[in-house]
Design a protein that fits this description.
Two copies of one chain form a homodimer.
Chain A (H helix, E strand, L loop, with lengths): L4 H15 L8 H8 L3 H13 L3 E4 L5 E4 L8 H9 L25 H19 L2 H12 L11
Antiparallel strand pairs in A: 1-2
Helix pairs in contact in A: 1-3, 1-4, 1-6, 2-3
Chain A binds a DNA duplex through helix 3.
DNA sequence: GCAAATCTTGACTGAACAACTGGAGTTTGT
DNA sequence: ACAAACTCCAGTTGTTCAGTCAAGATTTGC
C-alpha cells in the first residue's frame, strides 16, 4: 500500500468534513485554502468520494460538501481502497482486488505467504481506524478549539 | 509499500540464488527460464542487486551470479528498500527515505500518526524475514528435492 | 428573471515511472 | 582468436500521477 497525494488530500478533506459533521456543508474553496490543496484537483477528489457514497453535495451559491455516512462508519481502509486501490503489497494476496500473479504455483509461493502477513497487518490497522477515531485524534493532538475549521491537520 | 514486478522478480531470483548458496554461479538465462522472467529485464535487476552489494557476478563463458552476502544477513526489508524505495506508505513517516509532506504541522498530523503505525507493522515483518527464512519456507512448502534448481517458487 | 457562486463533467498535459528491447562493448575460458 | 557470457547505455511503449482548463448545470439572493 502506497498513499499518493490524491489519497492524502482525500483523507485531509474528510477530516475537515468529519470535524464539521452534521453542520452545514463546507465549500471546496474553504477546504482548499485551509489545507493547501489545489482547488481543481480537490474538486475531482471530492467528486469521487461522492460517487463512492461517502459524501453528499449541495449545489448553488450556498453549496458545498458534507459527509453522507456517519464518521464512525467510514474506515480508512474503505477510503484508501476507493481512492488508491488494493491495500495489499501485491495483488495476488488482495481480497478485494485479487489478480493472479506470474509465479508458477501460487498456493506454495513463499513470497506470497510473507506478503499475506504484511497485508493482514496493514488491514488490521486500517480497518480499525474510522474517521471518528481520526477526528478524535486530531482533537487530542491539537487541543480544543471553538471552530472546527480552525484545526490544522 | 507496493511491490512492483521488478521487486517481485528480484525476490524470486534471490530465492533461486539462495537455494544455490555456496555452489557455483547461476546463469541469468537459467533463472530467467526457470522463473519465467524476461531475460533482459532480469539482467538489469541482478545488476542493481550487484551494485547494492547483495550479489557478485562472474564474467565470461562460465559466468553468472551468486550471493555475496550470507542468506541470513539479507532481509526482505533491505532488498525491497533497495529495489522499490521506502517501505512506509507515505515518505513523511519513512526512516530511510524521509521527505517532508505538505501538511502544516507534521508533528501533530493525525494521518501521519496512523501511517507510522502502518509503517511499524510492515517493517516489523520484513526486517524479520531473511532470505534464509524464505528459502526454508520454500523447502517446507515444496518438500525436499535433489536439485535446488528444480524448486518452483 | 438574472447574476453570481457553486458543483459537475470530461478532456487535456507534462512529468515520472514501469517494463521492457536493442545494440555495442568487455571479459573470460579454451 | 573466438564465442559465450556479462556490462553498460540508450531508447520505446504504456500507464499513472498530479494537476489544469473549459464549458455546462444548479441553486440562491436580489
Amino acid at each position: 500500500m502506497k498513499l499518493s497525494l490524491r489519497g492524502e488530500y482525500a483523507l485531509r478533506a474528510l477530516i475537515v468534513l468529519g470535524l464539521n459533521y452534521e453542520q452545514d456543508v463546507v465549500r471546496i474553496q474553504t477546504i482548499s485554502e485551509q489545507q493547501n490543496i489545489p482547488k481543481r484537483f480537490l474538486e475531482q477528489i471530492l467528486n469521487d468520494l461522492r460517487s463512492a457514497g461517502i459524501l453528499e453535495s449541495k449545489r448553488g451559491i450556498a453549496g458545498g460538501y458534507r459527509l453522507k455516512q456517519s464518521p464512525d462508519q467510514i474506515t480508512l481502509a474503505s477510503v484508501i481502497r476507493y481512492i488508491e486501490g488494493p491495500l495489499a503489497p501485491v495483488s495476488c494476496v488482495s481480497e478485494n482486488f485479487y489478480e493472479r500473479c506470474s509465479c508458477p504455483d501460487e498456493e506454495r509461493c513463499a513470497i506470497r505467504s510473507i506478503m499475506k502477513e504484511v497485508r493482514e497487518a496493514i488491514v488490521r490497522i486500517l480497518e480499525g481506524v474510522t474517521l471518528s477515531v481520526l477526528c478524535d485524534r486530531v482533537r487530542t493532538l491539537q487541543g480544543v478549539h471553538s471552530n472546527p475549521l480552525d484545526y490544522v491537520i
